[in-house]
Amino acid sequence: MEIKPLTPGPYNHLVAEDKGKEEEKFDFTAEGEGYISLDEARVLALQHARDNRKVYGPYAEVELVFEVVDAGETEDFYEVTLSYLPPGNFQAPGTERITINKAGPIELRQVLSQPVPAKRTGALISTLAVVVVVVLAVGGLFVSGVYSGSESPSISGMAVGPSVHSVALTPDDPAELISPDGDVSVDIAQNTVDVASSITYLALEIGDIPTLPPGFTATGKAFDLSADSPLLRPITITVGLSAAESALAGNEEENISIQHHHGGAWETLPTTVDFTTSRATAVVSQLSVFALAVKQPDTAQVFSGSLGNIPSPTSSPIPTPAALPAFTPYPTSTPYPMAPYPTSTPYPTAVPAGGPASTPYPTSTPYPTAVPPSMPTPTATPVPIVDDHGDNVISATVTELNPDFDWFAKYSVLQIIGELETPDDIDYFSFEAYGGKERFSFSPRFLPLATDLGGGIPKIALYGSSWPTPLASIGLFEETLVYKPGSPGIIYLSVSNSNPGYTGKYRLVIQRTSTSARPNFADPLEPLQPVLPTT
Asked: Which residues does 58 contact at the CB level (< 8 Å), separation at least 6?
């Protein structure tokens, strides 16, 4: 197998490390001929991580520094552990493990941890210490015979410190995480994850989070949420409100919001505020750092010491006005005597002398005014509207037939950006369903001004071989359409307007779960025949 050399960049330290091993890299033995060496597996892992970054989530588009931290082998595979570090202030890099077949192909990728931002070291160390104590205590109970091998305790939620709490997740059951102080609750619906995992809450100090956008004030309620597996459905976050926070916002709902930090910037989440229950609620689809923030109105009343980092205003002293001097009146002026003017003598009126009568001039005949000919107003030629996607199943846009597939999670995701050029425009797309336990999840959003804030939910529907009857369609108040084909075939997706008069862009995220790589079908796929329920 030919291994391409690395170009100069973040990996130069590895080239220096392996310079003394160049003679060993391609030293194949007779019985091992056709297999790559461990050194070649290290280089292959670095190249694969550098060229395939989707698994790094918010760090996929930034410059990353990679390093091999461990490498080993079994009878048939090499296991290479890499660290990756984005630019910025981070306490620890992220890590992943890549499993490589000794014949050369990449078999498996597992992201073990995400990069840890700075200023969270103390909380993380205390968390790990308490977890170790809990593990040792449970191990002691097993050794002492309190628990037998057939009676394992079931722990659905476990507090591992005064600011950390963890809850176990399963695909079949809903779950609820409540912070140790009771201010934050997280509701996780059924089928939010596809494997058994956990979600963890970590309380943060004001100094541990990035500066909020201008105009927003932190309330002291900041926290980090993380999960062991990707979320397949949105979760609901609820934060309690104090009387001081409500007063600071002027008791106006639009002045209170839950902020979400991801991708290096804060995003203001659509937040529902209920002053009767003193709660603020938001729905999110990805996890990281969150904070409750208040946007102060101009007439907001501030309570001293009631919020985390809000100082009490210092009153300015009112200056004492100086006494005005007494008014001195101006002296009255004495008028001068005026002599009377003499009476004027009138002039005699002139009498005209007799003379010849004047001859009148002839009246002039006006020339006719020239009237310019009328010019017709030109009619504007309409500009043709170019449609970005087909308007029916015949001209439907064919999506990626073999999307990037995660072997470990049996999961793939595809994002489509389109535009409704007119209010009655309909866009069509086609997808290949592989059958079996595979399931599709469609999440549409309108994107005014090309932002993630959205302008509503587009109307989407799925069609197969029966054109008049859709396979499934999104409900009036639903944000996600979930469909399980059950058999292989072609699915047609229509996107239309649910907001009268709206024209603009939309985004559609398609997630496949319990899926696989594209099978080699013996015959071309036909439009999907819906699986009829058995009686």
From this structure: 262, 263, 264, 288
Mean pLDDT computed over 85-103: 90
pTM for the model: 0.33
Question: What is the CATH classification number for the domain harbouring 199?
Answer: 2.60.220.30
Q: Is residue 262 part of a domain?
A: yes
Count Cβ atoms within 10 A of the Cβ of residue 157 and give its class: 0-12 exposed, 13-18 middle, 19 or more buried.
Answer: middle
Count of structural domains, the chain: 3
Beta bridge partners of 22: none
Helix, strand, or coil (residue 482):
strand
User: Concatenated DSSP letters for 273-333?
Assistant: EETTTTEEEEEESS-SEEEEEEE--TTPPPPTTSSTT-PPPPPPPPPPPPPPPPP-PPPPP
Tokens of 52: 């395939």
Above 60 in pLDDT, residue 367? yes
Residues 212 and 277 in one domain: yes
Mean pLDDT over 459-466 rounds to 88
Average pLDDT over residues 184-211: 90
Q: 220, 308 in Cβ contact below 8 A?
A: yes
Length of the chain (residues): 535
Considering the domain boundaries, does residue 97 fall inside one? yes
Tokens of 466: 């029966």
CA neighbor of 507 nearest in space, from 451, 469, 468: 451
- Give which of 128, 133, 134, 130 is closest to 113, Cα–Cα: 128
Q: H helices then E strands: how many in the chain?
A: 5, 27
Percent of the chain with pLDDT over 70: 70
Q: How far apart are CA 50 and CA 10, in angstroms?
A: 10
Could you give the maximum distance between any two Cα atoms of the chain, in Å? 154
In this prediction, residue 175 carries a pLDDT of 93
Helix (H, G, I), strand (E, B) or coil at 196: coil
Mean pLDDT of 497-516: 83
Domain interval for residue 410: 397-513
